[in-house]
Amino acid sequence: MHLVTLGKTGITVNKNGFGALPIQRVSKEDAAVILKKAFQNGIDFYDTARAYTDSEEKIGYALSDVRDKIYLATKTMATNADKFREDLKLSLELLKTDYIDIYQFHNPKTCPKPGDGSGLYEAMLEAKEKGLIRHIGLTNHRVEVAVEAAESGLYETVQYPFGYLASEKEIGLVRLCRERSVGFIAMKALAGGLLTNSAAAYAYLAQYDNVLPIWGIQKEKELDEFIFYITSPPVMNEEYRTIINSDRQALLDDYCRGCGYCLPCPADIEIPLAARMTLLLKRAPHVTFLSPEWKEKMRKIENCIHCDHCKDHCPYGLDTPRLLAENWAAYQEFL
Fold this sequence. Notes:
By secondary structure, this protein is of the alpha/beta class. It has two domains: about 5-245, NADP-dependent oxidoreductase domain (TIM Barrel), CATH 3.20.20.100; about 270-335, no CATH class. The chain contains 15 helices and ten strands. It has helices at about 30-40, 55-65, 80-95, 120-130, 145-150, 170-180, 200-205, 220-230, 240-250, 270-275, 275-285, 285-290, 290-300, 310-315, 320-335; strands spanning about 5, 10-15, 15-20, 45, 70-75, 100-105, 135-140, 155-160, 185, 210-215. Strands 3-4-5-6-7-8-9-10 form an eight-stranded parallel barrel, surrounded by four helices. It has a two-stranded antiparallel sheet with strand order 1-2. It is globular and about 60 Å long. The chain starts with a strand and ends with a helix. The model has no long low-confidence stretch (mean pLDDT about 95).
C-alpha cells in the first residue's frame, strides 16, 4: 500500500483519497454502500465541502461509527467570520463529529490572512484553539493564490487541480509545497472526466511522493478501480507515457476544466459540459450526449445573453462564450 504524508500536519494516509463531491448525485443508501466499501478496503481520507449539498450528511451517516479511523476534510466558502462559524457548526453536525481534521477555505479569490479585514483567518485560528479543527487548509483554482498560500506559512495544506495535464507552473507549486512541508491535495486528476485512463493518471501522480490524489467517486465500479490500485499500483511505463502525451496534445491549453465556478448561468446553460462537449464526444459514447435531452440542453447556447458572467468567473481566464459557440457549432455536425 502506498502512503502519503500531508506535510507538517503529520497526517499519513492511503494514497487514494475519496473525493466526495459526486456522491451528492446518488441516494443516501447508495452513497453509504460506496463510502463503507471504500473504508473497508483501506481508504481513510475523505474530502467534502459545505457547498456539496448533502455530501457531508452522507459521510456522517455512513462513517460516523469509524470516525477515529479516518480523516475528514471539508470546506467553507464564507466571506465573513459569522458565516464561517455558521458553516463550521453545520459541517460538524452533519459529519457527526466534534472536530474536523482539515478545514479549508473553499476557492477564495484572494488568500485570507490575519488583519485583512475579513476576520476569516482569525475565525479559523479561533476554531483551531477550541479544538473544532486540527489543521488549516486552502483550496483554489488560481495557481497564484495557491502559491501565495503555500509561501505564507499560514496554511498546512493546499488543494489544487493537478494531474498529467499540469503546466510547469503547477508542477512548481507541488515542488514548493514539498519544500515548505505544506501538504498537497490533488483534485481533478482526471480533468473532470476528460481523462478516461485512471491507471495512467495514477501512475503520473505516483511520481510525486508528497501528493494525495482525491478521486471523485460516484459509482461502485469507479471505486473498484482505485481499490485495485491499492494492492496493484500502476507504475509509469511507455504505454502510459504514450497515453499522456496524446492527451496533452489534444487538450492543452484552451479547454474547460469543468470546475463549475461559472454557474449559475442566467440562460440556464450547463456550461461545464457544454463548453467541452466536442471533447467529450470524442472520448465518450455518443449515445449519452446525442440524446434528445442533450440536444435541447446544447440548443440553449443560442440563448446566451453575453453577460460575460461565465468569462468573468472562470479561474483559468477562458473566453467561455467563445468556447460555447464553437462547441454548439461542432455539436451540430455530430447530429
